[in-house]
Prior knowledge:
Layout: H1 5-10, H2 18-22, E1 26-30, H3 41-44, E2 53-61, E3 71-78, H4 91-110, H5 125-131, H6 136-139, E4 144-153, E5 161-172, E6 176-184, E7 190-200
Antiparallel strand pairs: 1-2, 2-3, 3-5, 4-7, 5-6, 6-7
Amino acid sequence: MVPTPxxxxxxAPLEWAIPYLTSPDWIVNERDRGVDPIADVFNRETIRxxxxxxxxxxxxxxxxxxxxxxxxxxxxxxxxxxxxxxxxVHGGALLTIMDEALAYVxxxxxxxxxKTDFTGSGNSKWKELHGQGRPPSEVLEGWFVTAKMxxxxxxxxxxxxxxxxxxxxxxxxERKLKIKAVMKDGKRTPxxxxxxxxxxxxxxxxx
Length: 207
């Protein structure tokens, strides 16, 4: 997608991120995981209500043929609906946003940048198994999920506000991903850092 004037205005405080938004070498997507009524409801709907998340974009450079996506950028603008202590974002909301930024590396690689609807008609097996009452280990077999996330809160995150999260894929194996994400403000000052391990659900993977 091409960023709209509204997007550019919303994320103007993140001057360091504007070149990514406007570069022809970067793919820009609205944060989207499909519209299934029993999946992703919290991030698709709940966190966006009551003056919460107002704009949420996910970006990554177009990979060369046969190459994986190694880095991504997530941009989030939010209102006072995410506040915890006065003037700051609630820690739980921050962890959710960071987890989703980490997830986008998986989404971009496992599903493809132009098909982020991982709960959609092209991936219906999980829904059939869920409807049959099968355990999560079967429903999610083959999908990467968060197994570990070490978080460092470096500075308060102002609320309302706008942040960018730079994410890097550090290690990729058949059943495991190691990913690092850093949330930054308009001056590119680190606010929050997360080092995560994602594992693929299956016989050899454990949550």
